[in-house]
């Protein structure tokens, strides 16, 4: 086995990389040692019921069916992967079979903490993850009627996200993998949001476009193939989900469901053209996003109408509630209009790079918003693309998307070998709080961007391309 530590960077471990494997690869846990990686790309820090046969999304006691996918469209290769997600404010785990069957999904929400702090408080979020992670993972296994011995691998989000929170999930994943001699797959959070659409839409093949919108991210990418993306646009400051959350907080809405759903619900009562907000970045001929200025416009409009956030909307007078609803509706319209304008340009760019694209994926927490879906469906349709949105329960952070993305990479040999059963207390875990997904499209660079580059990991795309290049060299030299 050849080990590369410094050719690319000591900090860019994309876990392990096997040599190219045949399409019929069947890597069960008990077969693992028969398929050891020829190349390992490792940083110094990495080294309750019957089995559910229905495809379902479960959160607490609520279960909603997913669109059914023909099992014949995807070979059931016998793989079973546990996915763990703790990048922000939800502790999630799920078990997914290789044919896309969701055996279980468990999510422990931090809604009460969100309401208490008016948003995510990293230290409190970490403590909440630590309290429930063991229970969440065990419940996911119990609901699937499986034990760790039945798993083929463990997948876990290693970035981007809050470092304190990511660490909880990675520690748990490594404990499980180490105790049961399981390979482990590190997952990029935003790639997982994009790829979960392939679990529910069997026609979705590469290349495709993806708009990923959440509390911390606004990214539009062209997905060339698994692990390789061109970033057409990103946020220069705040993401749309952050703008929804702040607007909800300032309007005195119930934050226990997060800000997005609260604003969307109130907006139904308002006049979306009553408050004249300016659309961000109208004069920027790129595909980047900015919501900091729109947030400021909303705050000033709230102050002008003397709306008191300490007075909840449920206690507001009729006139006050109408004012809040008008602001919510006007904000939502302009926030989404900004998405529309940038998406239109991005689609044009993407079609020049990959004329064969047929789908546009919209995923991430904000993709649960029905107004967002409706408006972007019109944009996609006008460009002869089919819009693909995962069900709302798979748009917000969840373990299913992590398990599925782990499955996709595991099949092509991208994983780490089992970690030690016991690791030292001072072990340096491979977590990547700031981890780009794709390589930036030259035409999409913007002078408005002022992102700090310190402690940013090389993009997932650059890591995988580097590993593929190294694999080709190795095969040539053999």
From TrEMBL:
Residue intervals of the Gcp-like domain: 101-404
Cofactor field: a divalent metal cation
Species of the source: Raphanus sativus
UniProt entry tagged with the keyword Amino-acid biosynthesis: no
Record-given protein name: Glycoprotease 1
Record field: catalytic activity: L-threonylcarbamoyladenylate + adenosine(37) in tRNA = N(6)-L-threonylcarbamoyladenosine(37) in tRNA + AMP + H(+)
Cofactor note: Binds 1 divalent metal cation per subunit.
Keywords per UniProt: Acyltransferase, Metal-binding, Mitochondrion, Transferase, tRNA processing
Subunit note: Homodimer.
Molecular function as annotated in GO: metal ion binding; tRNA N(6)-L-threonylcarbamoyladenine synthase activity
Location relative to the cell: Mitochondrion
InterPro entries: ATPase_NBD, Gcp-like_dom, KAE1/TsaD, TsaD
Job description of the protein: Required for the formation of a threonylcarbamoyl group on adenosine at position 37 (t(6)A37) in mitochondrial tRNAs that read codons beginning with adenine. Probably involved in the transfer of the threonylcarbamoyl moiety of threonylcarbamoyl-AMP (TC-AMP) to the N6 group of A37. Involved in mitochondrial genome maintenance.
Pfam family for this entry, one: TsaD
Family of this protein: Belongs to the KAE1 / TsaD family.
Biased composition (Polar residues): 52-64
Biased composition range(s): Low complexity: 42-51
Record-level GO cellular component terms: mitochondrion
Region (Disordered): 42-70
GO biological process: tRNA threonylcarbamoyladenosine modification
């Amino acid at each position: 086995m050849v080990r590369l530590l410094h050719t690319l960077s000591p900090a860019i471990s994309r876990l392990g990389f096997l040599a190219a494997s045949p399409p019929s690869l069947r890597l069960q846990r008990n077969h693992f040692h028969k398929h050891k990686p020829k190349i390992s790309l490792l940083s110094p820090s990495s080294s309750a019921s019957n089995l559910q046969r229905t495809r379902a999304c479960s959160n607490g006691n609520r279960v909603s069916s997913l669109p059914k996918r023909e099992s014949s469209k995807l070979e059931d290769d016998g793989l079973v992967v546990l996915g763990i997600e703790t990048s922000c404010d939800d502790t999630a785990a799920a078990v997914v079979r290789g044919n896309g069957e969701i055996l279980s999904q468990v999510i422990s929400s931090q809604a009460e903490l969100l309401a208490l702090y008016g948003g995510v408080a990293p230290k409190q979020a970490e403590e909440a993850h630590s309290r429930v992670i063991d229970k969440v993972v065990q419940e996911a296994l119990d609901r699937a009627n499986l034990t760790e011995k039945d798993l083929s691998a463990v997948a876990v989000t290693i970035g981007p996200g809050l470092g304190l929170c990511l660490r909880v999930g990675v520690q748990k994943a490594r404990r499980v993998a180490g105790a049961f001699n399981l390979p482990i797959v590190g997952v990029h959070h935003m790639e997982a949001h994009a790829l979960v659409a392939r679990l529910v839409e069997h026609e979705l093949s590469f290349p495709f476009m993806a708009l990923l919108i959440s509390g911390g991210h606004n990214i539009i990418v062209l997905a060339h193939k698994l692990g390789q993306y061109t970033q057409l646009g990103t946020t220069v400051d705040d993401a749309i989900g952050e703008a929804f959350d702040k607007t909800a907080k300032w309007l005195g809405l119930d934050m226990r469901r997060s800000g997005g759903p609260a604003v969307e619900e109130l907006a139904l009562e308002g006049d979306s053209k009553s408050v004249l907000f300016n659309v961000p970045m109208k004069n920027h001929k790129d595909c980047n996003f900015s919501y900091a200025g729109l947030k400021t416009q909303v705050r000033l409009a709230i102050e002008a109408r003397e709306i008191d956030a300490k007075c909840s909307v449920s206690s507001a007078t009729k006139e006050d509630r109408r004012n809040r609803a008008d602001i919510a509706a006007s904000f939502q319209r302009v926030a989404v209009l900004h998405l529309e304008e940038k998406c239109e340009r991005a689609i044009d760019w993407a079609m020049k790079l990959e004329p064969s694209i047929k789908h546009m994926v919209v995923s991430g927490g904000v993709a649960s918003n029905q107004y967002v879906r409706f408006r972007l469906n019109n944009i996609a349709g006008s460009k002869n693309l089919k819009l693909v949105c995962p069900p709302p329960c798979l748009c917000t952070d969840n373990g299913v998307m992590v398990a599925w993305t782990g499955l996709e990479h595991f099949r092509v040999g991208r994983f780490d070998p089992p970690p030690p059963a016991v690791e030292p207390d001072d072990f340096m875990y491979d977590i990547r709080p700031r981890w780009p997904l794709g390589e930036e499209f030259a035409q999409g660079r913007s002078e408005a961007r002022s992102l700090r580059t310190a402690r940013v990991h090389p993009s997932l795309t650059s890591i995988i391309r580097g590993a593929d290049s190294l694999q080709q060299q190795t095969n040539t030299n053999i």
